[in-house]
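Our platform keeps sequence and structure together, in a single record for each protein. Such a record has a labelled line for the sequence and another for the backbone structure tokens. Nothing more is needed to write down the fold, since each code stands for a local backbone conformation. For reference, a complete record is included directly beneath this paragraph:
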Amino acid sequence: MKIENQILTEIIMACFDLASDSSVPEDLRPKFLAMGKRLRGLLLNLITADFEAETPEFKEANQKLRRVNAFLRQQAQSLDDLANAIEQLGRLVGILDGLLGMAIGFV
């Protein structure tokens, strides 16, 4: 089973958009850029990885992808809690990093 790569791609694009958005405080833009780059690197590995769909880690990763994506969509409209967005992205990176170690194979 594959991770939800389309959702991850949307998150990466949101990070890059926020990194170049002049309404985002200047000190936070590099953090969004770094998260976007980190997630993009993970995406390259996740695209070729297969996972056991019933493992809690796989389910958690896909749930976290959906939650972070929804959160970033809200942030893109309100931009109220950018520090929380960066924290959520950091957690997602950790979850996806751990999931890669559990891949049952790579194409």
